[in-house]
Design brief:
Helices cover 20% and strands 33% of the residues. It has 243 residues and is α+β, with helices and mostly antiparallel strands. The protein is elongated and about 145 Å long. InterPro entries: Furin_repeat, Growth_fac_rcpt_cys_sf, R-spondin, Rspo_Fu-CRD_dom, TSP1_rpt, TSP1_rpt_sf, TSP1_spondin_dom.
Length: 243
């Protein structure tokens, strides 16, 4: 260390020299040596850089280097992130994961192997053939299940999610599409038509009877009353029967 030590330093240094930079740091700051070519310069930082871990002592806080395979670490023996080509497991960086574990290339960690899991089978579907449930004797029925857990890279693959089997049904004739509905519609229309026809006929009959009644009443009002014809016997002179 150069003997010229200054007390008026900048950048968080408590003491420093022109040749070696910071010699000590202000409270709560970490002292770390940075290499510049063949020279090392002391700097004071609020936290340790990548590849270093911090240790606190009563007189000074220092940043120490992690192991060569660690990118970041909590202590020298406990890594939190590994360098490329290594996988993190329990604070250590390994080239190969232990048995029962697999390498996760996304997180660069050793993780547990996950096997595929499927749900229970659904009930068998109705017996069908070419999408129909009638017009045949032998068909197929189907059941399905869902994947509830997809496997990891080394996990057991998923089983089939559908299954079919032959089935036999009592053969029945297919009703033409829309025939039943059409028949019901036609019956309803015919019933409405008959009702409307009867209503019209009844209305016509009532109108005719009313018109005839009004005509008779008018005729009675306009025609003079007929005089009662005299009795023929009344017009004859009395016969003298004295002789």
């Amino acid at each position: 260390v150069h003997p010229n030590v200054s007390q008026g330093c900048q950048g968080g240094c408590a003491t420093c020299s022109d040749y070696n930079g910071c010699l000590s740091c202000k409270p709560r700051l970490f002292f770390v040596l940075e290499r510049i070519g063949m020279k090392q310069i002391g700097v004071c930082l609020s936290s340790c850089p990548s590849g270093y871990y911090g240790t606190r002592y009563p007189d000074i806080n220092k940043c120490a280097k992690c192991k060569a395979d660690c990118d970041t670490c909590f202590t020298r023996n406990f890594c939190t992130k590994c360098k490329s080509g290594f996988y993190l497991y329990s604070g250590k960086c390994l080239e190969k994961c232990p048995d029962g574990l697999e390498a996760n290339n996304h997180t660069m960690e050793c993780t547990s192997i996950v096997h595929c899991e499927a749900s229970e089978w659904s009930p068998w579907s109705p017996c069908t053939k070419k999408g129909k449930t009638c017009g045949f004797k032998r068909g197929n029925e189907l059941r399905v299940r869902e994947i509830v857990q997809h496997p990891s890279a080394r996990g057991n693959p998923c089983p089939a999610t559908s299954e079919s089997r032959k089935c036999i049904v009592q053969r029945k004739r297919c009703q033409k599409e829309g025939k039943g509905k059409k028949s019901r519609e036609e019956k309803r229309k015919k019933s409405n038509k008959d009702e409307n026809k009867e209503t019209r006929q009844e209305s016509k009959g009532q109108a005719a009877r009313r018109q005839n009644r009004e005509q008779r009443e008018n005729n009675n009002k306009t025609q003079p009353k007929k005089r009662k014809a005299p009795n023929k016997d009344e017009n004859l002179a009395p016969v003298d029967t004295a002789h």
